[in-house]
Amino acid sequence: MKLFLITTLSLLAITIMHSQNGNGVEKRSYYTTSIGAAEPPRIDGSIDEQVWELADWSSGFIQNEPDNDKEPTSDTRFKILYDEKYLYVAIQCFDNEPDKIERRLSRRDGFAGDWVAVIFDSYFDKRSAFNFVVTAAGVKGDEFLSNNGFNSDTGWNPIWDTKTQIDEQGWTAEMRIPLSQLRFGNNHEQVWGLQLIRRDFRNAERSFWQHIPANAPGWVSEFGELRGLTGLIPQKQLEIQPYLLTQLDTYEKVNGNPFKTGSDFKFTGGIDAKIGITNDLTLDLTINPDFGQVDADPGAIALDGFEIFFQELRPFFVENKNIFDYSLGSNMDNLFFSRRIGRSPQGSAFGPAVAYVDQPNNTTILGAAKFSGKTKNGWSIGVLETVTAKEFANVIHEDNSEDKVLVEPLTNYFVGRVQKDFNDNNSFVGGIFTATNRDLRENLHHIHRNAYSGGVDFRHNWKDRTFFIDGNMVLSHVNGSEESITATQRSIVHLFQREDASHVEVDPTRTSLTGTGGQLRFGKSGGGNWRYTTGGMWRSPELELNDLGFLRQADDIRQFSNIARVFNEPTSWYRRANLTFFQSTNFDFEGNHNRTNYELIGFVNYQNNWWTEAGLVHKPRIFINTFLRGGPRWKYNEENVGYLFLGTDSRKKVNTVFGYVHSQATQDNFSYRRYEWRLNYQPMNALALSLNAQMELNPNKTQYVSQQDFNGTMRYITGEIDQKTWVATLRVNYAINPNLTIQYYGQPFISRGRYSNFNYVSNSTAGNLNDRVTWYNTDQISLDNDIYYIDETGNGSTDYSFRKPDFAFAQFRSNLVVRWEYKPGSELFFVWSQGITGFDDASERFNTIVDNQFLNRKPENTFLIKATYRFVK
Q1: Do strands 76-82 and 33-34 pair parallel, antiparallel, or not at all (unpaired)?
Q2: CATH architecture of the region 26-230
Q3: CA distance 91 to 102
Q4: Contact between 209 and 60 (Cβ < 8 Å)
Q5: Residue 79 · residue 57 · CB < 8 Å
Q6: Domain ranges of the chain
Q7: What does the DSSP assignment read for 428-486?
């Protein structure tokens, strides 16, 4: 903690020395006008209608990248008009070589090639904005921006119209944006934030209408202003989108199993709706949603016992997700993790005398409602209510009797989120509450009956948002049967049974747990060439969020600091660069100092648009409370890491990235090497291919294997593992036109681990590896039929045994999606998904595993046709 105090005081001193007001940039204003009774412009990309003469052109764009505050290579200008229902935007992008304009086709939100964007901060809160993008090829893109533009929601897909044209002067774009897709107050005279951006792909330039300095502390807060909007009437949004779906699943038939006949068929439907309660607040509804067109999760395997975190990809939960975000300070820990909704059933129907089981893979979402938005008074509101169905597994017993077993109860999930801006939108305070309530039955008492969490958060910016202080605090409470609470205490997240922990212990009579957590940070986010942050966070031992949130590990106190030097003024050899130093220390609630990390990262973007990223990490202290799964703290040897990534110019038809990561512990305790290659190829404007291949080598002399009783003493067994993992991800995107696209995703994944040189833990915190474990000699260990038998005493009898831990896991996932947006907001999907998952002999070579698992097995296939139609008022 002494280091934390020194770091904090040092950064406070730097703050006092460098405090200054403003960035010296004048705010620009554009004055629009109403078209009145004039005929609205046709949206065809040609700015030739007389109505456009009502508005003035505005130009004077300034480079943001690569040469900040310099004139761009080509001029850009725009006009904005409006009527009682729409905004009309015309943009002219001059280019003296129009045949070289990059017109790459992609799916919506692809942002490929040359493009222009118009961004409205219609709330005028200087924190959030609506971004409308069109490429020179006519492909739409749109995002809702929050957190001063540092968070973007690409799941927001408003209905609007746009067209582009190429001419002898360059290219032009026209947009018609319904006011119903925006959110604004009901003042007679409106003032909005405004920004326009042009990307000149060929010259690798981004130029802004409102100049933003390279070291600005924010994004939306730096916008110019749109004035002249008078008499606008807030528009209530009403959209209804029903869908119909037909699906055929094929798989390998299992003789004698009535649940594995080789194919299944279903026909179903559902509905989505978006209802504007007010112009500020929207209600999203879904009944029986389907996510069959969503990519499968990537392959992964974890040997540390922790849950693997996967990103949310389902559209209903992705849209407006930023308003529900309540991070505890890490990339994963959050009070709301939407993938808990519709999760795999937590119960199992497998057991004695059971012959066949048909168990669902996921829980059915009966319906969900999401109420969200931001009021003119600065209140951000989000409410999510979801109900998931009871799930039953069909069972046939060995005596041929049939049964249904409940594997997931009827469950209600609720999230409420609110934030209030004040202090001229430089500060906010907020709160969140989540609830999970289950209708439990007798065979599911191993899971919680109820789970609640709540929290408050705040942020304050000052000195023109150059400096900030923010923080949050959370409280969790779970209750259920003694069985469920005991299981939680003993889970990898908590491990109250740890042998050497005096501050926690398993209490099998408890029926609830209550915990706390939080974070406090202070830092400098803009102005000048230096950035820094320092702070701390904690998770108490009883904090439990995994019913509706995500928490990797409780019982953790962490201090962290970072300082960065940015180089945003281009030189003769680079466009921009930065150098960042990170430092952190970890403790548990008993006061044990568990970890110290130091990391130095450098990044350079060269003048030819190639780039390099390199880093060095030093971990002089590594103690892990969870390694022995309830055993004592474990010490790993000191670790040093280095990595280097090199990337070529991403504008080129062919560009690539090479990466190498090398980690090495002293005494060769463990090491890690990763080789990575990414290739992007654009053979034509309509076709893009990418390949990301990785090979990981992860040998470890002390990989956890098992724990066994030895004459009343627990033996914690580890072994030397030789683990190799290979994964490749292929994506193919073909755009017939902006509304008709074909996408393919395929990923083979193989991970193989071979164990040898088994040992048991003799002194888990010893500094020397040879004192930490004791290796079995050849007379003490023998293998028979995949079981290792241990005669530790050497008396000729088995003292304990454990199963051979070698593994070879192979998985293939692919998804082919044809998407046709036959009218704005209405879509037709044709989907073919394929998957293979299996285990092989770990003694086999990788090419043999490929043959056995991928080439010689019948894959599971899903063929799906889904049609949606959006009714809009």
Answers
A1: parallel
A2: Sandwich (2.60)
A3: 17
A4: yes
A5: yes
A6: 26-230
A7: EEEEEEEEEEEE--GGGTTS-SEEEEEEEEEEEEETTTTEEEEEEEEEEEEE--HHHHH
Alpha helices in 699-780, H assignment, sequence order: 769-772
Q: In the chain, what is the straight-line distance between the N-terminal and C-terminal CA atoms, in Å?
A: 59
The greatest distance separating any two alpha carbons of the chain, rounded to the nearest whole angstrom, comes to: 102
Is 662 in contact with 673 (CB distance < 8 Å)? yes
Q: How far is Cα 596 from Cα 560, in angstroms, rounded to an integer?
A: 10
Chain-centroid distance of CA 553 in Å reads 19
Calpha distance 658→647 (Å, rounded): 6
pLDDT(13) > 70: no
Residue 110, classified by CB atoms within 10 Å of its CB into exposed (0-12), middle (13-18) or buried (19+), is buried
User: Which residue carries 């605090």 as its tokens?
Assistant: 473
* Own/partner pairs, 680-683, CB within 8 angstroms, 24+ separation: 680/650, 680/654, 680/655, 680/656, 681/653, 681/654, 682/104, 682/653, 682/654, 683/653
> Tokens representing 597?
């990390």
Cα–Cα distances (Å) from 290 to 265, 414, 659, 760, 820, in that order, read: 15, 20, 38, 49, 17
Residues whose CB falls within 8 Å of the CB of residue 443, separated by 6 or more in sequence, listed in order: 347, 405, 406
| pLDDT exceeds cutoff 60 at 151 | yes
Q: Which residue from 601, 741, 613 is spatially nearest to 678, judged by alpha carbons?
A: 613
* pLDDT 10s digits, 761-811: 999 999 999 999 999 999 999 999 999 999 999 999 999 999 999 999 999
For 96, phi then psi, to 5°, come to -80, 0
Cα 426 to Cα 211, 465, 467, 470, 697, distances in angstroms: 21, 7, 11, 12, 48
**Amino acid (1-letter code) at residue 123:** Y
Separation of alpha carbons 859 and 251, rounded Å: 6
Mean pLDDT of 287-300: 79
Cα dihedral 92, 93, 94, 100 in deg (nearest 10) = -140
Integer Cα distance of 434 and 873 in angstroms: 33
Q: Which helix (H) or strand (E) holds 756?
A: strand 740-761
Q: Residue 53 in 3-state DSSP?
A: helix
For residue 200, which of 271, 326, 98, 350 has the smallest C-alpha distance?
98
CB-based burial of residue 115 (10 Å sphere; 0-12 exposed, 13-18 middle, 19+ buried)? Answer: buried
- E strand or H helix that includes residue 488: helix 482-490
Whether 627 has a pLDDT exceeding 60, the answer reads yes
**Are the C-beta atoms of residues 638 and 666 closer than 8 Å to each other?**
yes
Q: Which candidate, 68, 71, 40, places its Cα nearest to that of 54? A: 40
What backbone torsions phi and psi does residue 668 show, to the nearest 5 degrees? 55, 35
User: In one letter, which amino acid is 161?
Assistant: D
Three-state SS string over 284-308 comes to EEEECCCCCCCCCCCCCCCCCCCCC
What's the pLDDT tens digit per position in 363-420?
Answer: 999 999 999 888 878 888 999 999 999 999 999 998 888 899 999 999 999 999 999 9
Spatial distance between the Cα atoms of 833 and 746, rounded to a whole number of angstroms: 9
**40 and 52 Cβ atoms separated by less than 8 Å:** no
Residue 536: alpha-carbon gap to chain centroid = 23
Residue type, 280: D
How many angstroms separate the CA atoms of 696 and 666, rounded? 20
Taking the C-alpha atoms of residue 338 and residue 324, their distance in angstroms, rounded to an integer, is 10
Q: How many CB atoms lie within 10 A of CB 37?
A: 6
> Residues in the chain, how many?
873
Taking only the tens place, the pLDDT of each residue in 534-577 is: 999 999 999 999 999 999 999 999 999 999 999 988 899 999 99
Angstrom distances, CA of residue 257 to CA of 114, 166, 533, 763, 853: 56, 62, 60, 50, 22
